Amino acid sequence: MDFYELLQGHAAVFLLLLTRVSGIFVISPFFGSMNIPVYFRAAASFAFALVLFPVVDNFQGVAAPATILGYAGAMLSELFVGWLIGFVAYISFAAITMAGKVMDMQAGFAVVNVMDPTSGQQMPLIGSFLYNLAIIVFVVTNGHHMIISALFESFKLVPILGANPDLSLPLIIARFTTGIFFTGMKIAMPVTFAILLTNVGLGILARTMPQLNIFVVGIPMHLSIGILILSMVLPFYVLFLDVLFNEMYGNITTALEALQ
After folding, report:
1. I need a surface site. Which of 16, 113, 229, 232 has the fewest CB within 10 A?
2. With bands split at pLDDT 50, 70 and 90, how would you rate the model's confidence at 7?
3. How many helices (H) and strands (E) does the chain have?
4. Half-sphere exposure (CA, 13 Å, Cβ side) for 51?
5. pTM of the predicted model, to two decimals?
């Protein structure tokens, strides 16, 4: 028995399953973090696939494509399904990062950047704080279990070699992507509105007291108001994260249904 004949048996199911599982370790929050070594992510993908293999192989009969090119296309299709789960989950954290950038720009922290080990990119100060806090809440509330559950449910909604995306999938992805802006602005609204009122007050003060140097007074006032309002809304931010993560799970289900 040559290698391809082996692929047409149970090994075909396992390799395709492993490919789909690997997709969430590319971009999804927590699982796809850059500070997790690649070897560890590969080992975790193999372990997940090993656990899911008996269950998936039991209720799905998969016949491998007749050609090597067909099998390679099937692997790309399964990788896209896993990547889609991770991408929809990552959108929520992209909104948090955007909210942090808006807050930093308004409060005066835009010139301060820190290296984020989870993404390997430079992030503003408040944005990095909100993102790391969201990751902590995500893990504490078992949000990573939601991604694993969504991965398992994907084999029921979209069986192996059963991905058949319709025309609504690009529109769904575009809608989720544009939601980054609206969600980010909802998170940043308290600080943004407070800084706006501060600027209005400073403008009135500059007209009534022309001899006052507004730039000297405004910069520390922006920093103080930004930190004060951020500390006040942090409890509500944690509650908002719970709603955001529940919405994330619903968005994953919506995206998977478009692949049926």
Report:
1. 232
2. low
3. 8, 2
4. 10
5. 0.84
